[in-house]
Amino acid sequence: MEILDGPVVETAPERHTAGIRIVTPFRGMFAVRDKLMTELYGWLDERGADYGRTFLRLQVVAMESDMELEVGVLTDKPIDGDGRIEPGTLPAGDYAILRFVGHGRRANSTLINWIRAEGLPMDVDENPAGDRFGGRYEMYLTDPRSERMKTKWQIELGIHLDLLTAR
C-alpha cells in the first residue's frame, strides 16, 4: 500500500447512490465485488443512467463470519431501484479520509488507529458479532473498467465520524 494523502478529516454532503447489497463471507468478498460491479454497470448502462465513482461500502465487518456489503456508484440524483439494484445515500457529515494505492487491509487499520489517536467519534458499533459502521466506504478513484490491475487502483477510504442515532 502506498499512501497518497491523509489521514485527514473532510466534510461531505449527502451523496445519492445506486447499489447492490449482499451478505458474503470475507474470503470471497472481492470476487463477489467484481461480479456485482459488472452486474451494476450493465444495469445502469442499459438504462442510460449517468453515474460517477464506484464504491464498496462495508456495513458489517466480521472477518471470521459473514459481512454485509454494498457495491455501488454515486449518482447525481436518486435512481429508482429494480430488483437487486437499490437506491441509497452516503450520509452527510465529517469523514476521516485516507487515499492510497493498492490493497486496503492495512489502510483500514491505519485510518482507524489515527481516528482513535485523534480522539474522534467514529460512527461504529464495535461488537463480537461484527463491527457495524454507520458510514464506511472504499471509493475507487481509478475506474475499475479501465484498469484491471487492482494493485494499481487509487482508493479513498472514508469512515463517517458523526455519530448517528439510527441504524
From TrEMBL:
Record domain GyrI-like small molecule binding: where: 8-159
InterPro entries documented for this protein: GyrI-like (IPR029442), Reg_factor_effector_dom_sf (IPR011256)
Top-level division of the source organism's lineage: Bacteria
Pfam families according to UniProt: GyrI-like
SUPFAM superfamilies: Probable bacterial effector-binding domain (SSF55136)
Name of the protein in its database record: GyrI-like domain-containing protein
